[in-house]
Amino acid sequence: MKSPTILALLLPAVTAAAIIAPAGARLQAPDSEVRTIVARAVERAAWGQEQDFGARFRRSMTRRDQRFDGEGEVTEDESRGYIVEPYHGVPYAKLVTRDGKPIAGDDLENEREQWEDFLATIDDPSEPDEETAVVFDKDLLERYAAELVGIRDLRGRPTYVLDFEPKQGKLPTRRRVDHALNKSRGQIWIDRDTYEIARVTFDLTERVRFWWGILGSVSEANGHFERAPVADSVWLASEFDVYFHVRALFSTSRQRETSVWSAFEPITD
Q1: By residue range, what is the domain housing residue 228?
Q2: Residue 189 maps to a domain
Q3: What is the pLDDT of residues 135-174, one digit of tens each?
Q4: DSSP annotation string for the chain
Q5: pLDDT digit string, tens, across residues 88-110
């Protein structure tokens, strides 16, 4: 199962955050302090990627897909339940329910085919799409200006909250995803004790066009990505929510996707 990308960063919060600093207060932190916080978060993220904790835990996942008309009314609403379990170190999301009922019929047959395809490629998995992959690292963060705006309580843990927005001037556009990254702003919440990324919220500041608008465009996108501690020194994705309004060729889509992970269990040898 692939992890969310930028529209993962790249992300309504599950848990309300009580502000420790006075409401609306902005901490006048020097640039050096912000740089230190971000540098430690990048270092922690790199360590977490090396540990590959996602391949060490079984968990449940619920995904809800909603579609809307031009007036904002829901036209489709579907929920699916999965069991995510690593197999030879690669997480596989097995569909088990649709709209709260066990899968049957075509769903059951499709799941069997998905499993067979997964097994056929397990020894030679495909590489992430470099055009859309997003990694939380120094290169990503260098395109943004950040400001420490407070220390807030998130699920009982003090957390640095930083606003971010694109820097002025020319920004890199080597990949398709760069066009969205360069027009995204939001907040990043960094756990004060561990420097783990706990939450990212984002929205597009302006329309993103693909091939000068010929293939389509994204006129609106916003959402959040959350991570939570599931064991000692282990943080994993706990929620991802994104809304987007997309025009692709001759069709328009307004859609919300929400995924929630829970019931984390370590895999024992």
Answers
A1: 6-52+66-75+130-266
A2: yes
A3: 677 777 778 889 999 999 999 999 999 999 988 888 867 7
A4: -PPP-GGGT----SS--EESSPTT------HHHHHHHHHHHHHHHHHHHHHTGGGGEEEEEEEEEEEE-TTS-EEEEEEEEEEEEEETTEEEEEEEEETTEE--THHHHHHHHHHHHHHHHTTSPPPP-TTT----SHHHHTTEEEEEEEEEEETTEEEEEEEEEEPSS----SSHHHHHHTTEEEEEEEETTT--EEEEEEEESS-EEETTTTSEEEEEEEEEEEEEEEETTEEEEEEEEEEEEEEETTEEEEEEEEEEEEEEEEPP-
A5: 888 999 999 999 999 999 999 99
